[in-house]
Specification:
Number of helices: 9
Number of strands: 5
Distance between the termini: 65 Å
Number of domains: 1
Order of helices and strands: EEEHHHHHHEEHHH
Strand order of the largest sheet: 1-4-5
Shape: globular
Radius of gyration: 21 Å
Structural class: mainly alpha
Helix content: 55-70%
């Protein structure tokens, strides 16, 4: 007699609201993505302003710093979204989008690669620093990246919840009691209990970011610039690398029989960057010099 496996049936629609007058839909993915950016922006502003002290008052006002961080948060969407989408198209759906190029712009259907989003943030920080560094010396490249490293978790967590509602980024089949049975899975695993890998990743990112936020808020001056970014890169890479082992194979760059998934391969550069940055920060701090 076959044992009955307890599992959670996921029958929620990915659409939250549909207009009866216009061809418009509001998806859960879009709501969670927007909410994640908004909450991360609020946290980054609060965190950044906490370092405004008497040393900086003769150089710039607190309102100038607030406006600058708000602008960085506001324009981040213009860098994160295109780069995350581009990375997804290239590494996870190249053959599909070659046949259906009109689908590339339909971001509301899901399909963003976190590695591309990180690259977008780095690009924005470089451009932003060149514009604001002289006016607001506090806003160095590493300070901005440290802010991002401390608050990224809330956005990453909510995006993974959006993936859950979209029934995408599906885990491998499991007999564990918290397995999820999707009713309309994007990757053809409907009716089979699978690992809720979206929650594994999302909770991992949230916990990592929460720890880094605490360290940034309480001990940033003792740590020095760059460490939060280094820890974030290493942590993100490790969480993603481990999550891939219980995730359905994605991407067209490597074969189905490959020992590593494309997500794991893309995590290597991020991990190496984090380690190198951490070592450089340590050596610079020993010499009493700071990074950018």
């Amino acid at each position: 007699m076959q044992a009955i496996v307890a599992a959670i049936n996921w029958t929620y629609s990915k659409v939250l609201w549909t207009s009866k007058s216009f061809p418009l839909q509001l998806t859960w993915y879009g709501v969670f993505f927007t909410l994640g950016i908004l909450l991360a922006s609020i946290l980054s502003i609060y965190l950044g302003l906490s370092y405004y002290n008497a040393t900086y008052r003769i150089q710039f006002s607190k309102s100038d710093l607030k406006i600058a961080i708000e602008n960085f948060a506001l324009y981040s969407i213009l860098f994160i979204l295109p780069m995350a989408r581009l990375a997804y198209v290239v590494f996870y759906g190249w053959s599909f989008y070659l046949e259906h190029p009109q689908e590339i712009i339909k971001v509301w259907h899901g399909g963003l690669a976190s590695h591309g989003g990180i690259f977008g943030l780095i690009l924005e920080a470089i451009i932003f620093t060149r514009k604001y560094r002289k006016k607001i010396p506090l806003l160095t490249f590493l300070f901005l990246m440290d802010l991002c490293g401390a608050v990224f978790g809330i956005t990453a967590f909510l995006i993974r919840i959006g993936n859950l509602f979209n029934q995408e980024i599906i885990g491998k089949p499991t007999r564990l009691p918290w397995g999820i049975i999707f009713s309309n899975s994007v990757q053809g695993k409907s009716g089979v209990p699978v690992h809720p890998v979206q929650l594994y990743e999302g909770i991992g990112y949230l916990l990592l970011s929460g720890l880094l936020y605490f360290l940034t808020y309480k001990r940033y001056l003792k740590l020095g610039k760059g460490y939060v970014t280094a820890f974030a890169c290493i942590g993100i890479a490790l969480i993603r690398f481990c999550a891939e082992y219980v995730k359905t194979h994605q991407g067209t760059v490597v074969s189905e029989n490959s020992l590593l998934t494309i997500g794991q391969i893309l995590s290597f550069p991020l991990f190496v960057f984090g380690v190198v940055l951490g070592v450089v920060c340590f050596l610079r701090n020993r010499k009493g010099t700071s990074l950018i």
